[in-house]
Model the fold of this input.
Amino acid sequence: MKKLFNLPVALAAALLTMAVAEAHHSFAMFDRDTQIVKTGTVQRWAFNNPHSWLYMNVKNEDGTETLWSFEGSAPTGLIQRGITGDTFKPGATVTFMYCPLKDGRPGGAIGWAKLGDGKYINPADGGCNGGEENQKKWADWLAKGYTSSKDAENTQ
Amino acid sequence: MRFTKSSLCAGVFLLAAGIAPSAVLAQGFGSGYGPPLKVVPPPKEFATSEEHYAYLLEQAKGGTKHTLQSVPRWDGLWNTAGNTHMEAFIEGQGFAGKVREGVLTPEYEVAFKERWRQQVEDGQVHYDRLGHCEPPGMPRFLLEPYTHEFINLPLESYLINDFGPSIRRVLIGKQHSNLYGTHSWYGDTIGFWDGDKLVSNTKYLYPADFTRWSPMTSNQFETVETWELKKYPGGIERIEVQATFYDKFAFVKPVNTVYAFRRGTDLEKVDYRVNHWECDQTSNSFLDDKGVTNFHLPGEEGFNDGRGTTMFPELPGQTRDPIYNTTLPTSTSKE
Done:
């Protein structure tokens, strides 16, 4: 297995990907002012061009499950952040943050994801902020029990 | 953790330069790698791209005749590393800037102002033509991220972006030809070598754009480009493309910009492969009835399952997800 992480390259990539947060489409369908955290199991990680998609089964309060769909960055951008087609394995439990679709359907733009080993990764494109600073902010909010950015911001 | 000399230098360079996101955005996607890009305008003004190209060819005394041994090699993977095209059209920094007046013709300026208004006021241009899988085309080829490859041979060069994928063929020493009698996304490109510089002239392009938040271009858009591999301290290698854009419908006068590509060393280190893909088979974006981009989700009419099965699901081995064999709800559309 080749090593995927190199600090200076990661630093450069972090700066570069801020500018590469471009998509083949507009992000106008996402509510980028709202960030929500959920936990679910991976149905499929479609590491495809022009965008990756993470499909997650998430349990509802009544015990049923809903399939949620989240758009991420393009594979070339993700590989530069150490994310590959094997990162989300079907059946794995993942906690993730997303910016929802404005029309309320079960989907959105992926922000950060927290893998089973506790490691945060950033599969986001320009539709939601999955960056390191936001991960840190969320680690604090999660410790206080928040799962919605609006709730966290309203009580501060 | 492994620190190579070139990657360390690149990281130190970025830190030393104090590059902030606003500065990165100022020179477009992937900028901040190497010194700021500077436009080198043509030595004089030309009325047409052909006149410009002919002048450069004459200055180069017909061009350098390279062999397989001498032709400059730009093998490997490349990523976009910035551009200056927004500086030509926007006055001020990034999205806080205003449309520069008098650069575009009145009709194109009005159209661009509406795009810019959407970007600034609504936070996003509502729809991008790539959302229904149009190819980037020219000039967007020069900016669109994803992975590039540049293959030089004595009589032709292949300029490739894996978006689509898109391939521009630069035919060395040829004259323009248009047997189809129409235009196309990448047009017809002829070129010559001036030492280690590749000079090209592209014509017969479809109307396109620079990006969704940039001006649109017309079917009379033409380019003269000079491609050169530049080397900077710290092992930084950057292909810089000095471009002059001619468009009698869109521009009041020719526009000069520079684009850049950096080596995709991080991709090469992990043995990244450029695979063929087609937007039509994997994209689920569409233009909704409010004029905004939206997505078809699994189970909805129109959902396109890029990792689903072929037209022969009853046969073994017909899934496009052969490693994990996952399934999603199929489209509710009627065949």
Remarks:
- The radius of gyration of chain A is 15 Å.
- Chain A has one domain: 12-19+31-154.
- Confidence is low (pLDDT under 50) at residues 1-21 of chain A.
- The first helix of chain A runs from residue 7 to 19.
